[in-house]
Design goal:
Elements (H helix, E strand, L loop, with lengths): L8 E2 L13 E5 L18 E3 L5 E5 L4 E6 L19 E5 L4 E7 L10 H11 L3 E6 L4 E5 L5 E5 L6 E6 L6 E6 L4 E5 L6 E4 L6 E6 L5 E6 L5 E5 L5 E5 L6 E6 L6 E5 L5 E6 L4 E7 L13 E6 L5 E6 L2 E7 L5 E4 L8 E6 L5 E6 L4 E5 L4 E2 L1 H12 L2 H5 L5 H7 L5 H4 L5 H5 L1
Antiparallel strand pairs: 1-30, 2-29, 3-4, 4-5, 5-6, 7-8, 8-9, 9-10, 11-12, 12-13, 13-14, 15-16, 16-17, 17-18, 19-20, 20-21, 21-22, 23-24, 24-25, 25-26, 27-28, 28-29
């Protein structure tokens, strides 16, 4: 740890689902190699793309954050995977180990705005910012274009492990810390923050729902997922389905699903209905293989911006990507024991996912792009503004209601993952 079934898309026929099929298309290497005595310092704890996809940021260890223009110069999409980023880059010296990164402001992609509109809104309203969560409990917020330090937020008493801007175009920043609290900052009033208490240990991961009504968070040594109201700053409910703690969480782009990752001997990702608190289905490493991996925990989970894909990092592979509604992973990187991946993020326009590792590397993987089905488009558009309770009250056939609430996957997915592949 911190050392501390319905078809959802139309895919080309030549996209094959098979092991070791994830193409590595680029790599960023750390300046300093890992310490020979195992001391911390070089880890890439966080990687992020800006909301419009024009910047990439990574915490490259030893208190340094690198900001790069996207697409990166030198990358060869179908050629040699390793490359060196050059030009149009900015280095931020944060003075402390950087654990969390977040670009803002963020506007929801499902509020009827196109990419161009999002970009124009960002340009005219206020400059793009990058928040950095540090090991001393501070949060430094930088202006991306100039590298100017805009805010130095103090309040947390320990490592700021995760950060996220509310996706409503505002300057509302949510942070989670090892001091067991969440803080909600209004950057228009930098000396003011709301504190949410209730976690029993280090906060690992924080996510804000697309409609900005809820905050989800998970903490160490606690099997419960915490849901909070971002409107009233109060606790809503716990989600619980297992006796193991959760390490990562992420809302789907329509807000109808919440994905959580459990820290088990073998990996497990659960999907929840955040409105009702119901556990819908899970993706889980099976135990029926001839040679099961008994030390294969999960590190991070993240939805793609179109809601079709779910990526997660496990110990035995550097990346797995699942397409919602399918029986097998869309892509899996080569099996590599103890690869020590720590984080991942999708490019907002799709096609690429970035992963960060414990030895300080960033790797970029090609994700086959698919055209979402009409069913998926309709569900995403409706669920962005309609809760599960409202869907259940609609006078529509039960099968349609199940599709709109993702309950058509409930029994199909449970314990499925690689079961049939293990039997082959």
């Amino acid at each position: 740890m911190d050392s501390d079934h319905s078809c959802s898309s139309n895919r080309p026929a030549d996209i094959q689902r098979k092991e070791e099929s994830a193409p590595l298309i680029g790599e960023l290497r750390p300046i300093h190699p890992p310490s020979v005595d195992g001391r911390a310092g070089c880890e890439t704890w966080s990687v992020e793309f800006s909301p419009d996809g024009s910047y990439f940021a990574w915490s490259k260890g030893y208190g340094i954050v690198q900001l790069l223009r996207w697409p990166l110069q030198g990358i060869e999409w179908h050629g040699t995977p390793q490359f060196t980023a050059a030009a149009k880059e900015r280095t931020l010296d944060c003075g402390q180990t950087v654990w969390g990164l977040a670009f803002g402001p963020r506007a929801s992609r499902y509020a009827g705005r196109s990419d161009d509109q999002l970009r124009r809104t960002s340009e005219t309203a206020q400059p793009l910012l990058l928040a950095t969560g540090l090991s001393n409990g501070e949060i430094k917020v930088w202006e991306v274009e100039t590298g100017r330090l805009c805010f130095n937020l103090r309040g947390h008493q320990s490592i700021v492990r995760d950060l996220v801007f509310a996706p409503n175009g505002s300057l509302t920043l949510v942070s989670g810390s090892r001091d067991t609290t969440l803080r909600i900052w209004n950057l228009k009033k930098s000396d003011n923050s709301q504190v949410l208490k209730g976690h029993t240990d280090w906060v690992y991961s924080v996510s804000v729902s697309p409609d900005c009504s809820m905050i989800a968070s998970v903490c160490r040594r606690n099997p419960k997922v915490f849901l909070w109201s971002l409107r009233s700053y109060t606790f809503i409910r716990h989600l619980q389905n297992a006796n193991t703690w959760q390490v990562s969480c992420d809302f789907s782009p329509d807000g109808a699903l919440l994905a959580t990752a459990a820290y088990l001997a073998n990996w497990e990702t659960s999907l929840w209905d955040p409105y009702t608190g119901e556990h819908l289905f899970r993706l889980q490493e099976c135990f029926s293989c001839n040679f099961p991996i008994m030390d294969n925990p999960i590190r991070a989970v993240r939805f793609s911006s179109d809601g079709l894909h779910l990526a997660f990092i496990t110990m035995d592979r550097e990346i797995r990507v699942w397409e919602i509604g399918q029986d097998e992973p869309l892509i899996e990187s080569e099996r590599r024991h103890f690869s020590c991946g720590l984080c991942c993020t999708f490019h907002p326009q799709g096609g690429v996912i970035a992963t960060g590792t414990r030895d300080g590397h960033v790797k970029f993987w090609n994700v086959p792009q698919a055209v979402p089905s009409l069913v998926h488009f309709c569900r995403m558009a409706l669920r962005f503004s309609v809760s599960t309770h409202q869907v259940m009250a609609l006078p529509i056939p039960g099968k349609i209601r199940d599709i709109l609430t993702y309950r058509n996957y409930e029994e199909h997915y449970d314990l499925l993952c690689s079961y049939h592949r293990c039997r082959q």
